[in-house]
Protein backbone atom coordinates (compact mmCIF):
# COMPACT_ATOMS: atom_id res chain seq x y z
CA UNK A 1 0.00 0.00 0.00
CA UNK A 2 1.26 3.45 -0.90
CA UNK A 3 0.51 6.32 1.38
CA UNK A 4 1.65 9.83 2.06
CA UNK A 5 1.10 11.37 5.48
CA UNK A 6 2.69 14.75 4.92
CA UNK A 7 1.46 18.22 4.07
CA UNK A 8 0.74 18.95 0.42
CA UNK A 9 2.72 22.18 0.53
CA UNK A 10 5.25 23.00 3.25
CA UNK A 11 3.67 25.39 5.74
CA UNK A 12 0.15 24.92 4.38
CA UNK A 13 -1.12 22.58 7.08
CA UNK A 14 -3.00 20.61 4.39
CA UNK A 15 -2.37 16.91 5.10
CA UNK A 16 -2.45 14.10 2.55
CA UNK A 17 -3.96 10.97 4.11
CA UNK A 18 -3.44 7.27 3.34
CA UNK A 19 -4.73 5.87 0.07
CA UNK A 20 -6.73 2.68 0.51
CA UNK A 21 -6.29 0.45 -2.55
CA UNK A 22 -9.60 -1.34 -2.03
CA UNK A 23 -11.73 1.76 -1.59
CA UNK A 24 -14.11 0.53 -4.29
CA UNK A 25 -15.24 -2.21 -1.89
CA UNK A 26 -15.77 0.35 0.88
CA UNK A 27 -18.24 2.32 -1.26
CA UNK A 28 -20.08 -0.78 -2.47
CA UNK A 29 -18.85 -0.92 -6.06
CA UNK A 30 -18.62 -4.47 -7.43
CA UNK A 31 -15.41 -3.81 -9.38
CA UNK A 32 -12.33 -1.66 -9.47
CA UNK A 33 -11.48 0.50 -12.44
CA UNK A 34 -8.08 2.17 -12.70
CA UNK A 35 -7.63 5.52 -14.40
CA UNK A 36 -4.29 7.30 -14.13
CA UNK A 37 -3.90 10.33 -16.32
CA UNK A 38 -0.59 11.07 -17.96
CA UNK A 39 -0.56 14.76 -17.13
CA UNK A 40 2.90 15.75 -15.97
CA UNK A 41 3.03 19.47 -16.71
CA UNK A 42 0.80 20.57 -13.80
CA UNK A 43 1.68 21.16 -10.15
CA UNK A 44 0.80 18.79 -7.32
CA UNK A 45 -1.68 21.31 -5.94
CA UNK A 46 -3.45 21.58 -9.33
CA UNK A 47 -3.61 17.79 -9.56
CA UNK A 48 -5.43 17.67 -6.21
CA UNK A 49 -7.75 20.65 -6.68
CA UNK A 50 -8.98 20.53 -10.30
CA UNK A 51 -12.49 19.54 -9.17
CA UNK A 52 -12.87 22.78 -7.22
CA UNK A 53 -14.37 24.75 -10.09
CA UNK A 54 -16.41 24.24 -13.24
CA UNK A 55 -13.46 25.44 -15.32
CA UNK A 56 -11.22 22.91 -13.59
CA UNK A 57 -13.63 20.03 -14.10
CA UNK A 58 -14.09 20.81 -17.78
CA UNK A 59 -10.47 21.79 -18.35
CA UNK A 60 -8.47 19.07 -16.60
CA UNK A 61 -7.54 16.54 -19.31
CA UNK A 62 -10.18 18.23 -21.48
CA UNK A 63 -12.88 16.80 -19.21
CA UNK A 64 -11.77 13.17 -19.67
CA UNK A 65 -11.02 12.57 -15.99
CA UNK A 66 -14.40 13.88 -14.86
CA UNK A 67 -16.20 11.90 -17.58
CA UNK A 68 -14.54 8.63 -16.51
CA UNK A 69 -15.28 9.30 -12.82
CA UNK A 70 -18.89 10.23 -13.57
CA UNK A 71 -19.36 7.12 -15.67
CA UNK A 72 -18.07 4.91 -12.85
CA UNK A 73 -20.45 6.52 -10.37
CA UNK A 74 -23.44 6.19 -12.71
CA UNK A 75 -22.68 2.56 -13.59
CA UNK A 76 -21.95 1.30 -10.07
CA UNK A 77 -23.40 3.60 -7.45
CA UNK A 78 -26.34 5.53 -8.91
CA UNK A 79 -29.77 4.12 -8.15
CA UNK A 80 -31.02 4.30 -11.73
CA UNK A 81 -29.87 5.01 -15.24
CA UNK A 82 -26.32 3.68 -15.30
CA UNK A 83 -27.01 -0.04 -15.61
CA UNK A 84 -26.89 -0.02 -19.40
CA UNK A 85 -23.89 2.33 -19.73
CA UNK A 86 -20.68 0.65 -20.83
CA UNK A 87 -17.14 1.42 -19.71
CA UNK A 88 -15.91 4.49 -21.60
CA UNK A 89 -13.22 4.21 -24.25
CA UNK A 90 -9.68 4.74 -22.99
CA UNK A 91 -8.97 8.51 -23.15
CA UNK A 92 -5.85 9.67 -24.99
CA UNK A 93 -4.44 11.31 -21.81
CA UNK A 94 -4.29 8.04 -19.84
CA UNK A 95 -1.02 6.64 -18.49
CA UNK A 96 -2.64 3.51 -16.95
CA UNK A 97 -6.09 2.01 -17.60
CA UNK A 98 -7.61 -1.21 -16.25
CA UNK A 99 -10.98 -2.66 -15.35
CA UNK A 100 -11.05 -5.48 -12.78
CA UNK A 101 -14.09 -7.58 -11.98
Would you mind describing this structure in some detail?
- With 101 residues, this protein is an alpha+beta fold.
- The chain has one domain.
- Helix content is 29%, strand content 13%.
- It contains four helices and two strands; from the N terminus they run H-E-H-H-H-E.
- A two-stranded antiparallel sheet has the order 1-2.
- The longest helix is centred in the C-terminal third of the chain and has 13 residues, at 64-76.
- The model is unreliable at 1-5 (pLDDT under 50).
Quick tags:
single chain, 101 residues, alpha+beta, two-stranded antiparallel ribbon, disordered N terminus
Cα separation of the termini: 20 Å
Order of helices and strands: HEHHHE
- In the predicted model, the low-confidence regions spanning at least 5 consecutive residues are 1-5
Number of helices: 4
Shape field: globular
Strand proportion, as a percent range, falls in: 5-15%
Whole-number total of structural domains: 1
Number of strands: 2
Helix content: 25-40%
- The averaged pLDDT comes out at 75
Radius of gyration: 15 Å
Largest sheet, order of strands side by side? 1-2
Largest sheet: 2 strands, antiparallel
Structural class call reads: alpha+beta
